[in-house]
Specification:
By secondary structure, the protein is an alpha+beta fold. The chain has helices at about 5-20, 60-75, 125-140, 160-165; strands spanning about 30-40, 50-55, 80-90, 100-105, 110-120, 145-155.
Length: about 200
Protein backbone atom coordinates (compact mmCIF):
# COMPACT_ATOMS: atom_id res chain seq x y z
CA UNK A 1 0.00 0.00 0.00
CA UNK A 2 1.21 3.48 -0.89
CA UNK A 3 1.13 6.15 1.77
CA UNK A 4 0.13 9.76 1.28
CA UNK A 5 3.68 10.66 0.21
CA UNK A 6 3.67 7.94 -2.45
CA UNK A 7 0.29 9.02 -3.81
CA UNK A 8 1.42 12.66 -3.90
CA UNK A 9 4.60 11.71 -5.76
CA UNK A 10 2.61 9.72 -8.36
CA UNK A 11 0.21 12.64 -8.80
CA UNK A 12 3.11 15.07 -9.38
CA UNK A 13 4.68 12.70 -11.93
CA UNK A 14 1.40 12.42 -13.86
CA UNK A 15 1.00 16.22 -13.89
CA UNK A 16 4.56 16.66 -15.21
CA UNK A 17 3.95 14.04 -17.91
CA UNK A 18 0.78 15.85 -19.02
CA UNK A 19 2.76 19.11 -19.29
CA UNK A 20 5.32 17.38 -21.52
CA UNK A 21 8.15 17.43 -18.98
CA UNK A 22 10.46 14.44 -18.81
CA UNK A 23 10.67 12.87 -15.38
CA UNK A 24 13.66 10.97 -13.97
CA UNK A 25 13.40 9.61 -10.43
CA UNK A 26 10.30 11.79 -10.03
CA UNK A 27 12.22 15.01 -10.73
CA UNK A 28 13.72 16.85 -13.67
CA UNK A 29 17.48 16.56 -14.11
CA UNK A 30 19.86 19.54 -14.03
CA UNK A 31 23.53 19.85 -14.87
CA UNK A 32 25.80 21.01 -12.03
CA UNK A 33 29.47 21.91 -11.83
CA UNK A 34 30.80 20.73 -8.46
CA UNK A 35 34.28 21.72 -7.24
CA UNK A 36 35.76 20.14 -4.14
CA UNK A 37 39.05 19.29 -2.46
CA UNK A 38 40.62 17.52 0.47
CA UNK A 39 40.80 19.40 3.77
CA UNK A 40 44.08 21.36 4.22
CA UNK A 41 46.68 19.59 6.33
CA UNK A 42 50.29 20.07 7.36
CA UNK A 43 51.50 17.76 4.58
CA UNK A 44 49.25 19.48 2.01
CA UNK A 45 48.37 23.07 3.01
CA UNK A 46 46.88 23.90 -0.44
CA UNK A 47 45.05 20.79 -1.68
CA UNK A 48 44.34 20.19 -5.35
CA UNK A 49 40.86 21.11 -6.62
CA UNK A 50 38.73 18.51 -8.42
CA UNK A 51 35.95 19.65 -10.77
CA UNK A 52 33.15 17.49 -12.12
CA UNK A 53 30.00 17.91 -14.18
CA UNK A 54 27.18 16.04 -12.47
CA UNK A 55 23.62 15.42 -13.73
CA UNK A 56 21.22 15.28 -10.78
CA UNK A 57 17.70 16.42 -9.81
CA UNK A 58 19.03 18.83 -7.13
CA UNK A 59 22.21 20.08 -5.46
CA UNK A 60 22.05 17.54 -2.63
CA UNK A 61 22.10 14.58 -5.03
CA UNK A 62 24.80 16.32 -7.10
CA UNK A 63 27.08 16.59 -4.02
CA UNK A 64 26.42 12.97 -3.12
CA UNK A 65 27.28 11.76 -6.63
CA UNK A 66 30.39 13.96 -6.62
CA UNK A 67 31.78 12.27 -3.51
CA UNK A 68 30.87 8.86 -4.92
CA UNK A 69 32.89 9.46 -8.10
CA UNK A 70 35.76 11.22 -6.29
CA UNK A 71 36.20 8.32 -3.88
CA UNK A 72 36.48 5.99 -6.89
CA UNK A 73 39.01 8.16 -8.75
CA UNK A 74 41.10 9.64 -5.90
CA UNK A 75 41.75 8.90 -2.26
CA UNK A 76 39.26 11.43 -0.95
CA UNK A 77 35.90 11.20 0.76
CA UNK A 78 33.33 13.42 2.42
CA UNK A 79 34.84 12.99 5.92
CA UNK A 80 38.23 14.45 4.94
CA UNK A 81 37.09 16.82 2.17
CA UNK A 82 34.93 19.85 1.46
CA UNK A 83 32.80 21.27 -1.33
CA UNK A 84 34.16 24.58 -2.62
CA UNK A 85 31.34 25.55 -4.99
CA UNK A 86 28.24 24.16 -6.71
CA UNK A 87 26.97 25.94 -9.85
CA UNK A 88 24.16 24.98 -12.21
CA UNK A 89 25.13 24.96 -15.90
CA UNK A 90 22.58 26.22 -18.42
CA UNK A 91 22.54 25.58 -22.17
CA UNK A 92 23.41 28.61 -24.29
CA UNK A 93 21.27 27.57 -27.30
CA UNK A 94 18.49 25.58 -25.65
CA UNK A 95 16.04 26.08 -28.55
CA UNK A 96 18.16 24.28 -31.15
CA UNK A 97 17.96 20.51 -31.64
CA UNK A 98 21.40 18.86 -31.51
CA UNK A 99 22.89 15.38 -31.69
CA UNK A 100 24.40 14.20 -28.40
CA UNK A 101 26.71 11.25 -27.82
CA UNK A 102 26.76 9.78 -24.32
CA UNK A 103 29.47 7.45 -23.01
CA UNK A 104 28.33 5.52 -19.92
CA UNK A 105 28.85 2.43 -17.85
CA UNK A 106 26.17 0.54 -15.97
CA UNK A 107 25.90 -2.40 -13.62
CA UNK A 108 23.62 -5.19 -14.79
CA UNK A 109 22.72 -8.47 -13.10
CA UNK A 110 25.71 -10.19 -14.73
CA UNK A 111 28.44 -7.52 -14.64
CA UNK A 112 29.58 -4.00 -15.53
CA UNK A 113 29.30 -2.83 -19.14
CA UNK A 114 30.50 0.18 -21.14
CA UNK A 115 28.14 1.70 -23.69
CA UNK A 116 27.82 4.54 -26.21
CA UNK A 117 24.43 5.97 -27.13
CA UNK A 118 23.19 8.87 -29.27
CA UNK A 119 20.15 11.08 -28.80
CA UNK A 120 18.60 14.15 -30.43
CA UNK A 121 17.65 16.75 -27.82
CA UNK A 122 17.86 20.47 -27.21
CA UNK A 123 20.01 20.38 -24.04
CA UNK A 124 22.61 18.12 -22.46
CA UNK A 125 20.43 17.57 -19.39
CA UNK A 126 17.47 16.51 -21.55
CA UNK A 127 19.71 14.06 -23.44
CA UNK A 128 20.91 12.52 -20.17
CA UNK A 129 17.30 12.27 -18.94
CA UNK A 130 16.36 10.43 -22.13
CA UNK A 131 19.39 8.18 -21.64
CA UNK A 132 18.34 7.26 -18.09
CA UNK A 133 14.81 6.45 -19.26
CA UNK A 134 16.17 4.45 -22.21
CA UNK A 135 18.49 2.45 -19.95
CA UNK A 136 15.64 1.76 -17.54
CA UNK A 137 13.37 0.59 -20.37
CA UNK A 138 15.85 -1.50 -22.38
CA UNK A 139 18.22 -2.82 -19.69
CA UNK A 140 16.28 -2.43 -16.41
CA UNK A 141 19.12 -0.23 -15.15
CA UNK A 142 18.34 1.91 -12.09
CA UNK A 143 19.44 5.51 -11.70
CA UNK A 144 22.07 4.53 -9.13
CA UNK A 145 23.61 1.84 -11.37
CA UNK A 146 24.16 4.12 -14.41
CA UNK A 147 27.28 6.29 -14.44
CA UNK A 148 27.59 9.00 -17.11
CA UNK A 149 31.21 9.23 -18.25
CA UNK A 150 31.03 11.86 -20.98
CA UNK A 151 28.43 13.90 -22.91
CA UNK A 152 29.44 15.57 -26.18
CA UNK A 153 27.75 17.22 -29.15
CA UNK A 154 28.13 15.13 -32.30
CA UNK A 155 28.19 16.53 -35.84
CA UNK A 156 25.71 15.16 -38.34
CA UNK A 157 28.54 13.62 -40.37
CA UNK A 158 29.89 11.80 -37.29
CA UNK A 159 26.62 10.20 -36.18
CA UNK A 160 27.01 6.41 -35.87
CA UNK A 161 23.61 5.06 -34.89
CA UNK A 162 21.06 4.31 -37.68
CA UNK A 163 18.09 5.42 -35.55
CA UNK A 164 19.62 8.92 -35.39
CA UNK A 165 20.91 8.94 -38.99
CA UNK A 166 17.38 8.50 -40.31
CA UNK A 167 16.32 11.73 -38.55
CA UNK A 168 19.08 13.97 -39.98
CA UNK A 169 18.23 13.50 -43.66
CA UNK A 170 18.01 16.86 -45.52
CA UNK A 171 14.63 16.07 -47.17
CA UNK A 172 12.96 14.39 -44.24
CA UNK A 173 9.16 14.26 -44.53
CA UNK A 174 6.41 12.90 -42.31
CA UNK A 175 3.39 11.99 -44.47
CA UNK A 176 -0.13 12.28 -43.10
CA UNK A 177 -2.04 9.48 -44.88
CA UNK A 178 -5.16 9.56 -42.73
CA UNK A 179 -6.73 13.00 -42.35
CA UNK A 180 -10.18 13.43 -40.84
CA UNK A 181 -12.01 16.50 -42.14
CA UNK A 182 -13.93 18.14 -39.36
CA UNK A 183 -16.35 21.09 -39.55
CA UNK A 184 -15.14 24.49 -38.47
CA UNK A 185 -17.90 24.90 -35.86
CA UNK A 186 -20.20 22.59 -33.97
CA UNK A 187 -23.25 24.20 -35.64
CA UNK A 188 -21.96 23.18 -39.09
CA UNK A 189 -21.74 19.54 -38.08
CA UNK A 190 -24.43 17.22 -39.45
CA UNK A 191 -25.39 13.77 -38.27
CA UNK A 192 -26.08 12.38 -41.75
CA UNK A 193 -24.15 13.19 -44.92
CA UNK A 194 -24.73 12.11 -48.53
CA UNK A 195 -21.25 10.79 -49.24
CA UNK A 196 -18.85 8.61 -47.34
CA UNK A 197 -15.91 10.78 -46.26
CA UNK A 198 -12.55 10.10 -47.90
CA UNK A 199 -9.63 10.35 -45.46
CA UNK A 200 -6.82 9.15 -47.75
CA UNK A 201 -4.88 11.51 -50.05
Amino acid sequence: MLGLDGLGWMRRVKIQQRRGQTVCCGKQLHEYQVIGRRLPSEQEPTPKLFRMRIFAPNEIVAKSRYWYFLSKLHKAKRANGEIVSVNEIFESDALKVKNFGIWLRYDSRSGTHNMYKEYRETTRAAAVETCYQDMAARHRARFSSVQIIRVATVKASDVRRPYIQQLIQPNLKFPLPHRVQRPATKAARSLLIAQRPSTFY
